[in-house]
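for the recovery benchmark. tokens below, seq after
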């Protein structure tokens, strides 16, 4: 591990990873621009399939996202160059119909492009780690509720750190689910596998969503089992099993590092405890959005925005096993991809 280093949103090591860049519904037949690791990409659909290229025409580096598409052919707004769905130039109007086109007149595609969980994931370079899974997304009985994407001033590593942190619940989330009874974090183990890890533990919490509380059937403070999963770099999942009330809530949390100081957050709930009640699902989505806003009130105020990868740069306790393991995974990823882009 390199002493004194932090992982920024635009570190070159992250180029060899999968990242969310849009909700599937945000990508249509016309080009749209997204930012990832400080670089622009153009997304569009050809014959229903998502395409992704660096957002620059090889002629004058004009953003292709300013152009238009017809029948899956992308046309640059500046000089009208046209590219097929594989990124090959098929027409340069200024040269006429019989011209021989330059072999370099091609677009630079993403190394990897997948649609999962209602999102588009992009890997700029050959990914070193696999894209994480959400088994419940395809499991009978679970219904999905998408939160609107949230753009925030923050570091992607800090947001992942916050998602995995258990000790802040009683303090940051007093207005939602935090309770004094959960101030002490019980002992737990981190199970590492490849470029990810899993953690399971139980704690007390205020179950304000449970109708049985208002009906006097169950107390407000109940027990829930939390199972966290990280797949590097910023693909996170939390399964919450409600031990008294029954059922499960799965929270997917996926971070897109856009620029040095900006991220876009995609979060989805998968629930099997709402009995198909659309109103309760909408309430659950609004509740989770409020939880994230509580987190962002703190995370957006952090100076520096990078995640320290050297454990000696911060003070850690036994309650920080998940977040310390996050630093280990990302530090190993950086080493495997050639090192950090620079010291902070």
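predicted aa per position
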């Amino acid at each position: 591990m390199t002493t004194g280093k932090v992982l920024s949103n635009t570190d070159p090591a992250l180029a060899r990873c999968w990242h969310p860049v849009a909700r599937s519904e945000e990508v249509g037949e016309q080009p749209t621009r997204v930012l990832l690791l400080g670089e622009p990409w153009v997304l569009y659909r050809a014959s229903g399939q998502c395409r992704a290229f660096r957002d620059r025409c090889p002629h004058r580096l004009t953003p292709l996202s300013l152009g238009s598409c017809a029948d899956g052919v992308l046309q640059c707004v500046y000089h009208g160059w046209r590219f097929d769905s594989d990124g090959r130039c098929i027409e340069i109007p200024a040269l006429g119909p019989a011209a021989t086109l330059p072999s370099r007149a091609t677009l630079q595609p993403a190394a990897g492009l997948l649609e999962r969980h209602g999102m588009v994931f992009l890997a700029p370079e050959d990914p070193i780690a696999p894209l994480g899974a959400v088994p419940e997304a395809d499991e009978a009985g679970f219904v999905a509720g998408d939160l609107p994407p949230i753009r925030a001033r923050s570091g992607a590593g800090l947001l992942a750190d916050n998602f995995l942190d258990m000790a802040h619940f009683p303090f940051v989330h007093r207005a939602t689910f935090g309770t004094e009874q959960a101030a002490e974090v019980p002992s737990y183990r981190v199970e590492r596998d490849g470029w990810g890890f899993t953690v399971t533990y139980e704690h007390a919490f205020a179950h304000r969503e449970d109708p049985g509380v208002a009906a006097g059937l169950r107390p407000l403070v109940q027990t829930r089992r939390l199972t966290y999963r990280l797949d590097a770099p910023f693909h996170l999942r939390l399964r919450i099993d409600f031990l008294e009330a029954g059922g499960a809530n799965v929270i997917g949390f996926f971070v897109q590092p856009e620029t040095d100081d900006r991220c876009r957050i995609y979060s989805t709930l998968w629930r099997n405890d709402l009995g198909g009640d659309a109103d309760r699902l909408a309430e659950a989505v609004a509740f989770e959005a409020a939880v994230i806003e509580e987190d962002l009130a703190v995370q957006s105020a952090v100076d520096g925005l990078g995640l320290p990868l050297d454990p000696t740069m911060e003070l850690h306790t036994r309650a920080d096993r998940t977040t310390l393991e996050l630093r280990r995974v990302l530090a190993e990823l950086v080493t495997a991809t050639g090192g950090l882009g620079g010291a902070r």
